[in-house]
Write a structure and sequence with these properties.
The chain is of the alpha/beta class. The chain folds into 2 domains: 150 residues, NAD(P)-binding Rossmann-like Domain (Rossmann fold); 168 residues, Alpha-Beta Complex (L-2-Hydroxyisocaproate Dehydrogenase, Chain A, domain 2), CATH 3.90.110. The protein has 12 helices and 14 strands. Bound molecules: 1,4-dihydronicotinamide adenine dinucleotide and oxaloacetate ion. Catalyzes the reversible oxidation of malate to oxaloacetate.
């Protein structure tokens, strides 16, 4: 690109853009939080007819934000139009859980959304499309979308466990009275559900093993329970599911994917984050399941952090969450939501 030339806008399609997470995410995307302060964005808001007014209202307010990086705003009501030329697809649109519901209850309600969206991404999105599924049950919805998009490389489909990751880091920092910036090596393994395994066995706080600082009993007990049930805790306290922290995590996820995982802080521990990616069999997770693993983004692609030693506790927890994902996969296969192998 010639010096001083303006980069081509990145087209970001946000489904459920008229809903709560959409509302919290759009303004930050427009402000440059996702791709940096030099990169223009074209926003595409995909909604169903009942949600269009919300998207229209958000679009009016986006104009009123006078964001220098916002190249255009379009509203679509079909996935074919909504994903046309999309470079980044944030699949948020789906029904949120309310008090007393488990994620499995959402499979039937939301699974049907992601097949047609996967097909539209396959047929209409840009060749470099990158997909992040936020709508729950996120991992299995992402599997449905991915399996319905056979022409898109499987690893371009991801599901969001960055919120769990950020929760784990935030709660560890709070408990240890440490700085977030001093924490490294936290991993969320498995499903974005209560079977997830927030793992501190490789974590460090200012270079010291986290278990030496907070104790293994807390790190393998109350900590895991708190992180895995944080979504329900938020629903109980706020009266609705996480919104701003979810939007924040989605932006963190796509920003790292596009710009790379930031370099190590002073503690020197090579950083990683947590991403649900189609498994290639690493760490004993059955191939194809979208399970959360430790990963870093390099040159626009996620790389799984390899070679971490897992003790019996960790292996058991990872296998249990992977088994839940396999059961969800079998359930949606029975429902005809993913094509037969
Ligand atoms: N992975 C994660 O860490 C988290 C996931 N979530 C999930 O995110 C999803 C959205 O949450 P909220 O924004 O709070 O819900 P919301 O109900 O405020 O918004 C959802 C929006 O999606 C729209 N929608 C429904 N079906 C659609 C379709 N087929 N195409 C396009 N849009 C569609 C609705 O009209 C609505 O405007 C929920 O499934 C929630 O459980 C929420 C927090 C964290
Ligand atoms: O718990 C929910 O339903 C929303 C969610 O995914 C979370 O906050 O982690």
């Amino acid at each position: 690109m010639a010096a001083g030339a303006v980069p081509t806008p990145i087209t970001v399609t946000v489904t459920g853009a008229g809903g709560q997470i959409g509302y919290a995410a759009l303004f930050r995307i427009a402000s440059g939080a996702m791709f940096g302060p030099e990169q223009p964005v074209a926003l595409r808001l995909l909604e169903i007819p009942q949600g269009v007014k919300g998207a229209e209202g958000a679009a009016l307010e986006l104009v009123d934000g006078a964001f220098p990086l916002l190249a255009s705003i379009d509203i679509a009501t079909t996935p074919e139009v909504g994903f046309d030329g999309a470079n980044v697809a944030l699949l948020v649109g789906s029904r949120p859980r309310t008090a007393g519901m488990e994620r499995a209850d959402l499979l039937a309600a939301n699974g049907a959304i992601f097949g047609p969206q996967g097909r539209a991404i396959n047929d209409h999105a840009a060749d470099d499309v990158r997909v992040l599924v936020v709508g729950n049950p996120a991992n299995t919805n992402a599997l449905i979308a991915q399996r319905n998009a056979p022409d898109v490389p499987a690893e371009r489909f991801t599901a969001m466990t960055r919120l769990d990751h950020n929760r784990a880091v935030g709660l560890l920092a709070e408990h240890a009275a440490a700085r977030v910036a001093d924490i490294a090596g936290v991993t969320i393994w498995g499903n974005h559900s209560t079977t997830q395994y927030p793992d501190l066995s490789h974590a460090t706080i200012a270079g010291r093993p986290a278990f030496d600082v907070v104790g293994e009993e807390w790190g393998r007990g109350a900590f895991i329970e708190r992180v895995a049930n944080r979504g329900a805790e938020i629903i109980e306290v706020r009266g609705g599911s996480s919104v701003a922290s979810a939007a924040n995590a989605a932006i963190d996820h796509v920003r790292d994917w596009s710009l790379g995982t930031p370099p190590a802080a002073e503690s020197g521990v090579a950083p990683w984050t947590s991403v649900a990616l189609p498994s290639t069999g690493a760490y004993g997770i059955p191939e194809g399941l979208l399970a959360s693993v430790p990963a870093r983004a390099v040159a626009g692609a996620w790389q799984v952090v390899e070679g971490l030693e897992l003790d019996e506790f960790s292996r058991h927890r990872i296998a249990a969450s992977a088994a839940e994902l396999a059961a969800e996969r079998d359930q949606v296969a029975e429902m005809g939501l993913i094509p037969a192998e």
